[in-house]
Amino acid sequence: MTIEKTLSIIKPDAVQNKHIGNIIKRFESNGLTIEKMMMKHLSQEEASEFYAIHKERPFFNDLIEFMTSGNVVIIVLSGENAVSKNRKLMGHTDPEQAEKGTIRSDFAKSIDANAVHGSDSLENAAIEIGFFFTSCCRR
Ligand code: IDP
Ligand code: MG
Fold first, then answer.
1. In this structure, what DSSP letter does residue 56 have?
2. Is residue 26 a contact partner of residue 32, using CB atoms and an 8 Å limit?
């Protein structure tokens, strides 16, 4: 059994539409455990650094504007195969292509406002968890 940790972010659209509880329910009822959690309004700098990998993409500015448009909930999840399990629960990046019953299919409306972020590999999960949680009181 491989117990992993991964990072989830409930994005501003899902917070605004009062889906925090629904999304956390999906995690907990599918064998994932909430290890850490905080609500935060990301600064421009934090969002840009977090999504630096996408900085050459045409949608980068819109992504940063959206991610800083309201509060997000940042969560460390743990569980068996947590990285891939979370990605499966999230569904496709574009809610219109997401499988029925996934978080993005049920709670998101567009590819820009797609309810959740989830780490895409174990390596990125460690980096992303460190970004928000490791050094005490920095952010
Ligand atoms: P992921 O969130 O499913 O891992 P990524 O390709 O890592 O998808 O993209 C990061 C975020 O950037 C997406 O969740 C989405 O909000 C946004 N994004 C990705 N592709 C597009 C696009 O083609 N148009 C607008 N926004 C996009
Ligand atoms: Mg991604």
1. T
2. no
| Residues 4 and 82: beta-carbon distance below 8 Å | yes
pTM of the model: 0.96
Amino acid letter, 12: P
Ligand 1 pocket residues where CB is under 6 Å = 54, 59, 63, 93, 111-112, 114, 117, 120
- Cβ count within 10 A of residue 4: 19
Q: Which of 6, 7, 63, 104 to mutate to test the pocket of ligand 1 (most atoms within 8 A of CB)?
A: 63
CA distance 139 to 122: 23
Hey, which residues are catalytic here?
117
61-92 pLDDT, tens digit per residue, is: 999 999 999 999 999 999 999 999 999 999 99
